[in-house]
Amino acid sequence: MKNILAIRSLHIKTYVATMAVTLLGYVGVSCSKNCIQCYACLPPGALVLGLMLSKNIRVRFQKFFTSKKKIR
Amino acid sequence: MATSTNKTKIWFLRIISSIIGFALFAAPVALIPRLTNADIWDVHASCIRMTLNHFFNGLVKIVKFDFINITDDIMILLYFLPGTILLIVGFIIAPLFFGRHFCGWLCPAGFFTEYLNKLVPKKLQIPFHKLDVKAIRYGFFTAFLLIGFFSLGNMACAFCNFNIIQGIVGLATFNADYLSTFGTRLGWITLAWVLIFGVFSTGGRGFCNLFCPPGILSSLCHWGGGKFRFSRKIEIDKEACDSCAKCVPTCPMCAVNLKEKEIDLSACITCHVCQPACPKGAIIYGKGRV
Fold this sequence. Notes:
heterodimer; A: mainly alpha; 3 helices; flat; B: mainly alpha; two-stranded antiparallel sheet; 13 helices; globular
C-alpha cells in the first residue's frame, strides 16, 4: 500500500512539475520581465526535470562515460 | 480475428504511407492545401495544434455561455478547415474506433524522426520511455490547454515539430523561404527538441510520446475507446504469449509491457510493427478483449 501511494505521489509530482515548468516557461517568469515569448527558458527546464527524475538516464550516462574511460 | 502479416509487408506499406503523408501535408507537394485552395501551401494549411487550441477554447466558452467571443474560435477553425476536419476525424473519432492510424501511418513529423533514429547507434539512444511518461505527457498537455484557457496566449507554434520538419524538407528542396524557420532562437530550440526527444530517443518517437498535443489527444481517445468492445486495438493474447520479448524493441513508442503482457493503449500508435515480430502470433489487432 505504501509503495502504491509513493508511486502515485511521484506521478502527481511529475505531472504538476511538468505543468508548472511549461506554464512558467511560457509566461517567461524565469528569464526577464520583457518576455518576447521566445520559450528559451522551457527546454532547459524540461530537460533538467527529465534528467533529475530519471535514475535510469543518470545511470546510463554514467555507464557510457565510465566505459569510455576504461577503454582509454 | 488475427491478421496475417509479415515484417516486409508492414514496412513496405509504412514507407509508402509515409511518402503519401509527406505528399499530402508537406511542401513542395502539399496536396491537401492545394485541393482545398488554402492560403498557405505547406503543413500550416492543415495545422492541428492551432485548431486543437481553438477547439478547446470554443468548448470552454460554450460551457461558460460566452457565445459572443466564440466567433473568433469558429473563424480560426474555418480558416484551418483541413486541420479542423483532420482533428475531428483523425484524432478524435478514428482513435476511438480503430486506433491511432494517423500517427502510425501518415504523420510526416513522426516518420521523419523514426527513420532518422534507425541511423543512431543503440548506445546513444536515450530511453525517455523509462521516465514517468504519462505524467510528463499529460502535464505538458494540460499546460498547453491551460495557456489558452487563462487567455495567456497560444502555445500552438511553440515547439512545433511539424514546422521544423517542413523547414528541413523545404530547405532540402532548395526553397529559400524556409530559411526563416531557423532564423529565430525558437526555431533552433525546437530543432534541438526534435533531435533530442525525437531522433535520439529510443524508438525515435519520444517527441510524439511526450510533447505532441494532437497526438496526446488521440492517445486519450484511443485509451478511452479501448475500454469498450466496439473499439479495434492491438492486444496481446496472454495465453499464447511466452514472453520472448521479440516484440519489445520493434515498438517505436515502447508501448509493450512484457510483465503484464499488455500494450499501453495510451502510447500505441497502431503501426502494427510488433505483429510480425511475434513468433507465436500472439499480438492481435481486433475488437473487444482477447
